[in-house]
Write a structure and sequence with these properties.
Elements (H helix, E strand, L loop, with lengths): L1 H34 L2 E4 L2 E3 L3 H11 L1 H19 L3 H18 L4 H9 L2 H13 L4 H32 L9 H67 L9 H13 L3 E8 L4 E5 L18 H6 L7 E7 L5 E12 L2 E10 L1 H9 L7 E6 L5 E4 L16 E5 L5 E5 L7 H4 L4 E8 L2 E11 L1 H48 L1 H7 L11 H55 L5 E3 L6 E4 L1 H7 L12
Helix pairs in contact: 1-2, 1-3, 2-3, 2-4, 2-7, 3-4, 4-5, 4-6, 5-7, 6-7, 7-8, 7-13, 8-13, 14-15
């Protein structure tokens, strides 16, 4: 008993070791297949490595399948930057393997998993742990479910093909299994390819439209903002040209400033300084703190230094103002000139709120932002609430700007470990930069988020995947129903054929089922011909058996008469008669006289009928 136990344990250990080694081989092969992903869009990928792991489950069982599934699923960590898909796909293998052991169809098992446990795991890991939006989570659940069922279908087809190549008759697939797998694949594959091509075309079209939209918006904003500045510059130029020189403070000058300011809501302040940079007119005449704005020395301002030196050009500048409440100012300054001589300057301080409102009116969608940046990379105005005037402008540091066509770039956030690469695309955006007309050292930055486009595409993909899922359910139901009906007819026909000898022997008649196909009709007709031939042969055999019994009886009577005659001859023969039977010398026939001659007891002589 002890020896038997040791041998059994060693055999189990060798079997488990083999299962592990085979699982590792299939897992590495599945990992390699997963490397070649089919990207639907932006890290929403279809992977096909589980075809091999599902085949390993069908062929080698639970242990091999789980090891293979775990190793192959590790590739998802590489593709998607998070480990949770490894858990989901490994549990899928365990769930499928356990139900297959209970003789449940593998595809049906996979459907059960993804409509129950698989969806719950995706919801847990993607929505609650990685904080994916619910609509994106649903999309991922549908995508992974359809992908898993498709791979299981392909694995079933491989397993059917494998069974055909084996000489072992017990592995032959059933007709029901063949019909189900072939029907499902021929319906599912075209549906999947149509979905893939449709999503790819839709994505390319929407992204191209978004690039065109951002370029159109940027060009329109460039022209509109340039016109806004041009109009304000013309107003300041008019103020400078209409101011008499030398510049002196006067009631007339103050009224003029107040009148122009009331007609130009784009300006917050208007003012005039003399050649010494002393304010001689200012509207409003007092600042936010109630202090007078006339008579202020502005000689230390950079814009005064820029406008008062040859070649006496107009200046538009962003700076930090000190009159009233300190803060960012945008000023337009024009020199007051006469015969090439500088007599002072007129200026207008732009109203940021007015400029921001003007820019916001240029935006065509909520996902778009426009930022105006000066030559020092300082923000002049932006529709982004986080960007204030004088803030330094730059692209976010935790990402990469990828150049595209038509001067558009795609800013993509860097991957974050454990979060998932698919999530980052909602934070990505297209961006383009254009110089401002008349101020080529300034630039207009227009950004538009890809999130709305991805949400629309995700919704469309989810609806399409849900449709394919519903199609799969109907396909599984009707193909199994059709396969069961057809295989049932074959099984019933098999039972009838098996009972054929019994029915013929009993003299009965076979009630054949109505054939459901031409092939079954021809097969039934052939078996009917065969059964008629068998019945005829059986009848002849019965007749021969009855005749044979009669002939045996007649021959037995004849033989008895001959033996009686032979006995009489042997008893009365005047001479000795004997015949040897075999090499041992036994006598078969001997007369009475011969018996006396050889001195043998007649009871020891073998007498046998010829």
């Amino acid at each position: 008993m002890a020896e038997t136990s040791v041998t059994s344990t060693a055999s189990v250990k060798r079997t488990v070791t083999n299962d592990l080694l085979i699982g590792i081989v299939f897992g590495l092969a599945g990992f390699a297949v997963n490397l070649f992903k089919l990207e639907l869009y932006f890290n929403v990928d279809f992977l096909f490595g589980s075809i091999l792991t599902m085949f390993a489950i069908m062929r080698f069982g639970l242990t091999t399948g789980i090891v293979a599934a775990f190793i192959a699923a590790l590739c998802t960590w590489y593709h998607w930057g998070q480990p949770w898909a490894v858990v989901i796909f490994t549990v899928e293998a365990i769930f499928t393997a356990l139900l297959i052991r209970r003789k449940v169809n593998s595809v049906f098992t996979n459907l059960i998993y993804w409509f129950s446990c698989g969806t719950l795991l995706v919801l847990l890991f993607y929505h609650f742990i990685m904080k994916f939006p619910l609509d994106t989570t649903i999309l991922i659940a549908l995508k992974q479910g359809i992908n898993g069922v498709a791979n299981t279908l392909a694995a079933s087809a491989l397993y059917v093909g494998y069974c055909y190549t084996r000489k072992d008759q017990e592995l032959l697939p059933s007709l029901r299994q063949i019909i189900f797998v072939v029907t499902s694949l021929f319906v599912f594959i075209p549906s999947f390819l149509f979905l893939y091509m449709d999503i790819q075309q839709t994505l390319a079209s929407q992204l191209a439209n978004q690039r065109r939209m951002i370029n159109m918006s940027a060009n329109g904003a460039q022209k509109s903002i340039s016109l806004w500045f041009q109009r304000n510059q013309e107003a300041v130029n008019y103020l400078a040209a209409s101011t008499p020189h030398p510049v002196v403070a006067s009631q007339t000058l103050q009224k003029k400033l107040d009148l122009i300011l009331s007609a130009m809501p784009e300006f917050k302040r208007l003012g005039i300084v003399d050649e010494d940079a002393i304010s001689r007119g200012f509207s409003p005449p007092v600042d936010d703190k109630g202090r007078s704005t006339v008579g202020i020395d502005l000689s230390d301002r950079r814009y005064i230094a820029a406008v008062s030196t040859p070649p006496y050009r107009m200046v538009t500048q962003l700076f930090s103002g000190r009159i009233g409440k300190p803060g960012a100012r945008l000023i337009v300054v024009a020199p007051i000139l006469s015969e090439g001589k500088y007599f002072g300057a007129a200026f207008g301080v732009a109203e940021f709120d007015s400029l921001k409102l003007f820019i916001q009116n240029l935006i065509q969608s909520d996902d778009m932002n426009i930022t105006l940046v000066d030559e020092n990379e300082s923000v002049i105005v932006s529709t982004k609430s986080a960007l204030k005037p004088l803030d330094k402008f730059s692209m976010p540091k935790n990402g990469t700007l990828k150049p595209l066509s038509d001067g558009v770039g795609h800013w993509i956030p860097d991957p974050q470990p454990g979060i998932g690469l698919a999530k980052r695309w909602n934070s990505s955006f297209y961006v383009t930069e254009l110089p401002l007309e008349g101020k080529p050292d300034w630039k207009l930055v227009v950004e538009t988020s890809l999130r709305p486009t991805l949400l629309k595409l995700g919704h469309k993909t989810s609806v399409a995947l849900a449709g394919i899922g519903a199609l799969l359910l109907l396909l599984v139901y009707f193909s199994r129903l059709f396969a069961s009906k057809l295989s049932k007819n074959v099984l019933n026909f098999e039972v009838e054929v098996r009972r054929l000898p019994e029915i013929i022997a009993a003299g009965g008649t076979v009630e054949w089922q109505t054939p459901s196909t031409v092939e079954m009709r021809n097969l039934t007709a052939t078996v009917q011909i065969m059964s008629e031939a068998m019945k005829g042969a059986y009848d002849k055999l019965q007749q021969m058996n009855s005749t044979l019994e009669q002939r045996v009886d007649e021959r037995t009577v004849q033989l008895n008469l001959i033996m009686q005659e032979l006995d009489i001859i042997l008893e009365n023969a005047p001479i000795g008669i004997a015949k040897l039977v075999d090499r041992t010398g036994r006598l078969l026939i001997i007369s009475h006289d011969s018996e006396q001659f050889v001195l043998l007891n007649r009871n020891n002589i073998l007498i046998k009928a010829l």
